[in-house]
Amino acid sequence: MLDLRPRSALLAAGVLAAVQDVEPLPLDDARDVTGEGLAFVELVAERTELYVHQPVRVRLRLGLEREFWASQVIQPFRRILDIPVQVREREEAGEDDLAIRTIPPGPDRRPATLALDGDVVAAAWAADEVRDGRRYAVAEIERVLRAGRPGELRLAGPLLSFAFATGFAEDLLRGRVPLDRSDAVVRGESLVLRIQPLPEEGRPPEFTGVVGRFSVAASARPRELAAGESLELELAFAGEDGLDRLALSWLAVDGFHVEGMIAAGDRRRRTITCGLSPRSEAVHAVPALSFAYFDPEPPAGYRAVRTSPIPIAVRPPPPPVRDDLLARRRGWRAPILGGAGVLAAGLVALLVLRGRRRRARAASPGRRSDAAAAFRGRIAAADAELVTALVEYLAARLDCPPPAIFGRDLAARLAIARVPGVLAARTTAILAGLVGARYGGGASAAGVAEVAALVADLEAAFRAAAAAR
């Protein structure tokens, strides 16, 4: 009898032991047994009416008539599969703007291997079903789909193929050997999803692009700083699948200059870190911020969540020797990054992994003077990331949080620090190349020697400017 239980200890723990190609089962001479009750395959969606970018769960389900599968189905692949079938998914027009993510079986679901197109994947066993007096073992593959445009989306019906025999012989070496192999196919029906556009009416200016529901919490550090210094605002978002679409390019904070942002996270949790500089000593709090999303649940509409205000204390500026520099820094308005901010989204993860997550702080001579030595130590490491090392160096030398390095005014910051214009332009160009190569792919980037030479020239310029003060 065919054993439908998982054979792998790794699979039993919810981990696929190996992923390898399988040879496709023949379809040309396969007998179409759709409707004969031997098996079924279907697509089932939790809803068929939804909005653009609204996540929807769709299950690919196959049922195996237990008596038939235990007595007549054979293993047609060289690799033994828990469910010896192949499912083929056909593409139809309209699927080019469709995002699909497979959900692996959870710890409470028994996994089982089967062939999906040319790969071995893990499905999850579900409860048996009885249809027309027959009992079926049921397995499911669950996905999350998001359509990127309105209209009717038709998902083609899947094909389930397998091999079976009516006669068997016992072999001492090979065990039970089929005498009259036949190939069969079962056809599933297509699934139609109707996608509605997001309404224009009532769309607030702070709409983030997220369809679903989410929450947000804000924190800031330090809570005490001098005028002209920066603090780090962290916005932690959590919610349903879809937070990867979170867009904050419009973000403005009353009373503060926004000095760039970096992002990290996934579809359900996302963290945005911003550098903020208070415009004056009269600022006493980071104000409450409002973030809007579209909630598709009835009654569908735009909703908003708000952060709580965060009290801060802004001290008078440092001694007069820095008055001119700090006053000019307060006059900046650094626009939020567009493409560069997206490319730099992974940088915060690198900083966290290295234990380098920064708090905004007062100007520190030790931090500045140690910047070059710290840079040399970072690039000497076996796992050195040039972009991380250069950003850390610049943040230390310019006394700002790392997110501020990605502002469009980096050249202006360097100019205020009395770095020559040619050297400032060279710095921004090299940094852009490193970020593009690391996070965008395909861009040319400077090597270790070139970046080290850049830092040496910057260090000379910073020291010359300090001596001239």
List keywords for this structure.
about 475 residues, alpha+beta, eleven-stranded mixed sheet, four-stranded antiparallel sheet, 11 helices, 27 strands, about 35% strand, elongated, disordered N terminus
Secondary-structure topology with pairs:
Blueprint: H1 9-12, E1 31-32, E2 39-45, E3 49-51, E4 56-65, H2 66-71, E5 86-88, E6 98-103, E7 111-116, E8 119-125, E9 129-131, E10 134-147, E11 151-155, E12 159-164, E13 168-171, E14 175-178, E15 182-187, E16 191-196, E17 207-211, E18 214-221, E19 224-226, E20 231-239, E21 256-265, E22 269-278, E23 285-286, E24 290-295, E25 301-306, E26 310-311, E27 313-315, H3 323-330, H4 339-343, H5 347-353, H6 365-369, H7 371-380, H8 386-398, H9 410-416, H10 421-440, H11 448-468
Parallel strand pairs: 1-15, 3-16, 5-7, 17-24, 19-27
Antiparallel strand pairs: 2-4, 4-10, 5-12, 6-10, 7-8, 8-10, 9-10, 11-16, 12-15, 13-14, 18-20, 20-22, 21-22, 23-26, 24-25
